[in-house]
Automatic annotation (TrEMBL):
<dbReference type="InterPro" id="IPR051782">
    <property type="entry name" value="ABC_Transporter_VariousFunc"/>
</dbReference>
<keyword id="KW-0067">ATP-binding</keyword>
<keyword id="KW-0547">Nucleotide-binding</keyword>
<dbReference type="Pfam" id="PF00005">
    <property type="entry name" value="ABC_tran"/>
</dbReference>
<dbReference type="InterPro" id="IPR017871">
    <property type="entry name" value="ABC_transporter-like_CS"/>
</dbReference>
<keyword id="KW-0813">Transport</keyword>
<dbReference type="InterPro" id="IPR003439">
    <property type="entry name" value="ABC_transporter-like_ATP-bd"/>
</dbReference>
<protein>
    <submittedName>
        <fullName>ABC transporter ATP-binding protein</fullName>
    </submittedName>
</protein>
<dbReference type="GO" id="GO:0005524">
    <property type="term" value="F:ATP binding"/>
</dbReference>
<dbReference type="InterPro" id="IPR027417">
    <property type="entry name" value="P-loop_NTPase"/>
</dbReference>
<feature type="domain" description="ABC transporter">
    <location>
        <begin position="13"/>
        <end position="236"/>
    </location>
</feature>
<dbReference type="InterPro" id="IPR003593">
    <property type="entry name" value="AAA+_ATPase"/>
</dbReference>
Amino acid sequence: MENLHTASHENVVELKGIHKKYILKHALRGIDLTVQRGRIIGLLGPNGSGKSTLLKMMAGLVYPTSGSILVNGREPDVRNKQHVAYLPEIDHLYGWMTVKQTLAYISNFYTDWQEEKAASMLAAMELDGNQKVRNLSKGMRARLKLIAALSRNVPLVLLDEPFSGIDPSSRAKIIRLILQEFQSDEQTIVLSTHSVNESEPMFDEVIFLQQGRVRIFDTAENLRSEYGCSLEKIWEKVYG
């Protein structure tokens, strides 16, 4: 059986004609998208544009109504979930655990967990390992969630609104940590955010979603050159 860590798929994610329909909502409407290895990709769009649904699909948590998706060269299944790190927007941490207990608990689920890396990031994020999660500020909880995602040695990292509702200091620390820990030769990060101005320097490529469709997909450099302005200004022009 092929090892997903050593598989030489240049395309980490391939989506063709993807639709996702719920009872009352058509979340994705014909997504064609190829995500290559070694990129940090910004997934941008207003609320309801399909960002979270798309990330969950890449993570193997939801399945398309129609169309095809390949992650690391195969259709998403239980095995793929072991090779994708997914940070949801919702707070999924147990408040009664300490910071160290939380990381130890999460590490039990994954054979690719990197203990030394987790300890290093814990220090960099200035988190007290003995503090209860329920006593952490929202920004500190966001840092802890990010440590949990980045401590895994996986080819695909999916981050859903990691800056949501947190202070500028925590946002800056999180951005520095992502750039510091990004393994550009073997990893891809797809990051959904509304904090375009601060996160813009991270992005190699940018996807603008609108009403479940890809409105724009290009390199950040090409977009800034074409529009003659920052990604934040492009956001304002696209979504008006």
